[in-house]
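Appendix B, Record 12. Input sequence as logged:
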Amino acid sequence: MSDALLDQLAAFTPDRRSFLKVLGGGLTFLLTTEADAQESGGKGHHRRGRPLPENISAWLHIGEDNTITVFTGKVEVGQNARTALTQAVSEELHTAPQAIQLVMGDTDRTPFDMGTFGSRTTPTMAPQLRRAAIAAREALFDLAARQWKAEASRLEAADGCVRNPATGTKVTFGELTKGQNLVQSIGMVKVDGPLSRSLAKVDGRDFVTGKHRFTADLKRPGMLYGGILRPSAFHATISSLDTSAAEKLPGVHVVHDGQLIGVTAPDASAATRALAAIRATWKTEPQPSDKTIFEYLKANPEGNGGGEVVRTSGSVATGMDDAAHRLSATYAVSYIAHVPLEPRAAVAEWKGSKLTVWTGTQRPFGVRSELAEAFHLPEESVRVLVPDTGSAYGGKHTGECAVEAATLAKAVGRPVKLVWTREEEFTWAYFRPAGVIEIRSAAGKDGKLAAWEFHNYNSGASGITMPYDVPHQRIVYHPARSPLRQGSYRGLASTANNFARESHMDDLARAAGFDPLEFRLKNLTDQRLRAVLTAAAERFGWGRAKVGANRGAGLACGTEKGGYVATCAEISVDPQTRNVKVERVVTAFECGAIVNPDQLKNQVEGAGLMGLGGALFEAIQFEDGKILNPKLSKYRVPRFEDLPVLETILLNRRDLDSSGAGETPIMAIGPAIGNAIYDALQIRVRALPMAPHIAHT
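Logged structural output:
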């Protein structure tokens, strides 16, 4: 992958040096796609080609008590990867899921993994663990065959045992291995066909009863609680500092290490009081606000300002000149926050020169690299463990909280727990990039697309290419210097690019005199995208009748990361308050072979509901380096009262490999709602979130 392409894919850190510092580690053969580079929030990763371990024992161990321990660098952040990977091993070993213990995201015990992102767990890690399980099964057959002097090919596995059907003899896996490692190579093991059944969430009861321990619940002997003094604004520098009052509080230690100023205390409340007692003044500088951000992004390109051409064909000028219908428009998307259920948290403990950190992250090995660099340690001296974490959505790639906790722990010589407050999470984490998108298009009298020119400023290149057939096109991504820290978010820039594209397609359809569904199908030869579009439209009842006064219907579709989605939405608008209510959503989704139907439905519906927030309400407000709405009382996310009736159609393509499903379903809900708003009010809203624009029309 060229440096230019890596730069194009991710305008998510201020410069290449900061990316390399944050990312660390290296590429693996599992994860080397362009989308992965963008998802990880970085611009380059040059330690390429780290091979995967080939021996069974790196991935799977069978204890003498018949416990099957499986190792993966992937992590569980609410997407149910633990269940999917447990199922993969369970079905290949023909044993109960309860017999399998999955060790996830422990850098001392699991094989290296670049991270849990990019919808890659199902298409990459599940097959890898299936291969390991198949190889283990064959190794167990060989052990049993030698013991019984039988033919291995005639043996079978069931319920944690190897059985000889000819004699009825059976032996447990653990009795065969005697707890020793299976050192055989996985080799060229083939995976036969997709899995496809609904397995209940592993450890689900622990989550609903409160038994599960998140990072914030962990305790270590002699542990202290930490807090960090935050600047008054982004890029502020300290002018004066008085910590004397904090130092007088019982049990409080003040830590001043370079730019970090923090405290430790016997409990979390004492740490909060100690921070409040510190007197600091800061030097700040004028910075842009959310009111001027779109002009700012266009006026402050990164690099030479010419942008990176993602796709070009034919001549846009010729296509525009020859077409009967021409249209141009500008779209915008705001910065939004990830709002994870669990804010960043870390527990750090030093034992001599060995550092252990428990933290919620999507990239345990990347965080290990950050810690090793921060403290000038070899990576082997750092261990990162990731408890199952309360959501991430692309927002927990970096390890700043882990570094802060480790700095405090090193200074005081005791374990330290650091839990970010909700306001810290809103302010000091990174945001989904804001962006400006400009489109020029043209269509002929027959409704066929003739030209398409698409420029994205800052929000990203994911999902930027045109799924429709158009002979003349030019698609360009323009990185910009963002005034706010920005990075990966569920679906990356596909939400922004698809919102602009699908909104524009509706307007162009009407300009050409065609129904929006008819227009799309007329310009679409991608059979998988056509299939989800027609499935959603048929279930929704598209075009049967007008839905009523102050109500509207809209549709949108898209494809990204091997998934195909189409969404139809019905909305109502209160004539007095102008509040928009999404009444009904029908979504059709296809991602190849379905592994776990119930979990896939959860992913599709969860992504759609999350996308509803960015479509209607969510936006970060900021001015002069300060976030103005850093709390849930001021930052609007979807609530139970906002939930529409959800209807989900899953298209199962068992002839295709499985793709991930955590991200792509988010990309169609926004434009479907926008198109429904136009249908109801004849008002085209070209900026996300849309609700404020409706209220002021």
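The chain has a mean pLDDT of 92.
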